[in-house]
Amino acid sequence: MDIKLHRLESFSAQDAQGRAHKVYGYELLARAYPWLDAAVQWEPTGVVEYKLATGEHLDMGRDGTLHGAQSGLHLHRTPVTH
User: Phi/psi zone of residue 27: left (φ > 0), alpha (ψ -120 to 50 degrees), beta?
Assistant: First the structure.
């Protein structure tokens, strides 16, 4: 199956020491009709993943916290102020 990532959002998050990290949210898209060579159509799969700007994959907990399996980082979304 052909898939690609489509960026949905980016936001800042803080670790326990208060350091800021850039986080990107992506949705996986799948080719709708891979057997056709005509116009390529991509369909959303409903699968979302989060990554640090460094490329490290993040898992999102039920409470919205993000956890980096490789680095052990625990991140919280930084509130946006207007």
Answer: beta
